[in-house]
Amino acid sequence: MSQQTAAPGEYRITNPATGEVVATYPSTTDAELEQALAAATAAHRGWSRSATATQRGALVRRVAELHRERREEFADAIVTEMGKPRAAALGEVDFAADIYEYYADRAEELTRDQPIDLLGGEGTAVVRRASLGPLLGIMPWNFPYYQVARFAGPNVVVGNTILLKHAPQCPRSAELVHRAFADAAGELGAPEGVYTDVRISTDQAAAVIADPRVQGVSLTGSERAGAAVAEVAGRNLKKVALELGGSDPFVLLSTDDLDAVVEAAAAARLDNTGQSCNAAKRFIVVEDLHDAFVEKLAAVFEAQTTGDPTAEDTDLGPLSSLAAAERLAAQVDRAVAQGATVVTGGTRDGAFYAPTVLTGVTAGNDAYHEELFGPVAVVHSVRDEDAAVELANDTPYGLGSYVWTTDADQAQRVADRIEAGMVFVNCVLADSPELPFGGIKRSGTGREMGTLAVEEFVNKKLVRTAG
Prior knowledge:
Aldehyde Dehydrogenase, Chain A, domain 2, Aldehyde Dehydrogenase, Chain A, domain 1, six-stranded mixed sheet, single chain, 14 helices
């Protein structure tokens, strides 16, 4: 299977399962980009500032409803664009709708004044959350709806307006979200400039960040992209939020049901065909459970159905592109050349990559510190809790983590010691709209989802009134 490579800056849909170029979308011209910037600025100065939190919440609620009403069309788009199995695609659409509804339900609560108890003197003091203005969002291909929802939902409720640059391989899903916002705005009397999809190049994105009308930028993507965006934002003194890569540890210290833990481990690694920044990627298992864990995990991986993402019985689809599969294969081949052992998998067929279990990845192996973005699990053996925590923290990343133990005190102790933005104890795939999402170290800065998301791009304005 061969796949054509899109020209730099081009927005092209290439079905990764077939290699077929489905559609090519025109890029946004500089003149169109200026119109979008002007519209976002006008929408913020007008409707966003004059509308109440309840009115802004109503817009976000209608966007959620349109996601549900159009879920089949939305799902079809990402199955074709990035190979997500259809059941998972429908689940992502529903989760995005849940996120919008979460912020719509709490619009007043999340934006109300926060009183401050004065230590002395008369009068009152409050912190008032005021919108900043137009924001640029730069979103990745792996969760085309969920990623947008967790950025756009809280920021529209706060009163910011959105310019959204999606991944070049996802123009159809980006267009569908834009149309949902535009239709909701038309129904409720809000301007279309509250949310605008822009198909722009890297150079145009840098110009947008530098534009004085734009007040901040949020990126979810690679470490390289995050560093480039942060550099431009820093030069222009703009607030930036970064959600970057991860190599999350899954620490298994004890269990009464190894089969259940293995099923959870497989789910945590193979979700989205392994293409998730906060997937469990490094499995750190105490010595007395290691061999049985590896054997059982390999069996679960071998039982997965890999194939046509439109088929109802498909567990894993292709990777997002032929290039992504080739990149993952090269990483695994290099890991093996440097001493790792392939327990199962390790083969590629076009953009499809077999679920793979690696052991023997030591500190001298490139895969020890790399992020493997696909269905590849690296399993380590450790002697005890201290060794497990040391290995878990021996990574440049710090996004999520997983701790499995029958000892409740140990669970909390290890959770405290792990260097990560999130720790999930005895559970996986437990994300929810009310839970903050984000990391530390080279996994980024800032938080999305939950109540913390509204704090990222807002003016926490002190209003002190004399008595």
